[in-house]
Amino acid sequence: MTAGKFITFEGGEGSGKSTQAMMLADRLRALGKNVVVTREPGGTPLGESIRELILANRPALVAEFLLFAAARAEHVATKILPALDAGNWVVCDRYIDSTRVYQGKLAGIDPHLIDIVEKHTSKNAWPSLTLILDVPPATGRVRASERGDLNRYDAEKISYHEQIREGFLEIAAREPRRCIVIDGSKSTSEVAGSVRGALSARFGVEA
Ligand SMILES: Nc1ncnc2c1ncn2[C@@H]1O[C@H](COP(=O)(O)OP(=O)(O)OP(=O)(O)O)[C@@H](O)[C@H]1O
Ligand SMILES: [Mg+2]
Fold first, then answer.
1. Which sign, positive or negative, has the C-alpha torsion 141, 36, 4, 6?
2. How many CB atoms lie within 10 A of CB 75?
3. CATH number among 3.40.50.300, 3.40.30.10, 2.60.40.10, 2.70.70.10, domain 6-200
4. Distance between terminal CA atoms of the chain?
């Protein structure tokens, strides 16, 4: 099989998404695969501009949701789909599940709105596999502290981080064919081993 797969990494702050996305991309490349690594929000010039606009303007919740949606529509149309159509593997750091958790569960955007926008922006770019990196908030906090980001982490109560964790686990329980939960609290190489195991189980690829 030559067609690429679309793999997304999800999880709370400091769960290791960016680290594992890069490591997986490196292993897939070593197997001779063409890999595009990307992230949300952002991933395209327009998406990065929208991300900056959001940070600079702190829009109202629905406005923020729709701006993120515009960034996703652009990302899917100009980057993710063309890469998949060309047979590349695409590894994306945060995607639809982060929207469901942060904008839906946490910010209270109507799930029907999230659902319909998700269908229209992402239905042609549906993840083949979503790896949910699960870490207790205490672990996320230690990692945030180690990278000098503790203020941002502590700006929210621990219950907020608990709810994020719960939100991702709820999605995994509802969509077990798409999602695999990985214990992200282990060492970087152990987590990478679990990611390999997931790819082997789902795609028969020993990455
Ligand atoms: N398994 C691990 N064990 C210990 N430290 C780790 C592990 N994985 C990542 N880290 C470290 O924890 C910090 C957060 O990791 P990373 O940036 O990959 O997480 P993230 O999920 O992308 O976070 P964010 O949501 O903030 O983007 C980094 O400093 C990273 O080096
Ligand atoms: Mg990251």
1. positive
2. 26
3. 3.40.50.300
4. 15
Percent helix, strand, coil in the chain, to 5, is 60, 15, 30
| Helix, strand, or coil (residue 11) | strand
Q: How far is the CA of 16 from the centre of ligand 2 (A)?
A: 7
Does the C-beta of 194 come closer than 6 Å to ligand 1?
A: no
The span from the CA of 26 to the CA of 14, in Å, is 20
- Is the CB–ligand 1 distance for residue 47 below 6 Å? no
Task: Answer whether 76 contacts ligand 1 (Cβ < 6 A).
Answer: no
Which two structure tokens, joined as six digits, stand for 6? 């679309």
* pTM exceeds cut of 0.85: yes
Ligand with minimal distance to 191 CA: 1
Amino acid making up residue 134? D
Instruction: Give yes or no for a contact between 31 and 37, defined as CB atoms under 8 angstroms apart.
Output: no
> Tokens 């159509």 belong to which residue?
85
Per-residue pLDDT of 38-76, as tens digits, reads: 999 999 999 999 999 999 999 999 999 999 999 999 999
Q: pLDDT confidence of 163, banded at 50, 70, 90?
A: very high
